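[Q] Does anyone have a clean structure-token version of this?
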Amino acid sequence: MADPAITLKHIRDRCRIVDDCWIWAQCTVGRYGRVRVGARTYYAHRLAQEIHTGKPIPRGMDVRRCPDHERCVNPEHTQIGSRKATVKAMRERGSLSAGVRHSISVTVPRRARAVLTLEKVREIRRLWVEGKKPREIAPIFGVDVTNVRKIVRGDAWRDGVWHG
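[A] Here you go.
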């Protein structure tokens, strides 16, 4: 539980008020407001919910944010719920990531998505031994220079399987 000296007023003072939403105007990481209290960092919407209810959010539970403004931290606009309920609500309002790239990353095993085959990895290593630089090799195979470096160092694709 957060420091009891922190109040909803402290949270609200760090927001822009739009309609009835408290839009977090301080530090963000991605789409989430972050706030530091003592030595601990909280997501702003979760901290506001904890202060509002006076008790910690149960382990494994999400705090669903306002559908109108994703950085809204007004505890009147958030709900505590399971991940399943959160995903269902996101799907219903159309804010769940979807499409070909998302479905592939969710449903296809990592190895099946690999751009490289063992033969291509051997070719990358051969080209490197012949003196080609990773930045010259990468575009040939449609991969990032970092991946080529990992392959030639043996950090990736040792024993014929991607370990990146």
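[Q] Thanks! Anything notable?
[A] Residues 118-129 form the longest helix (12 residues).
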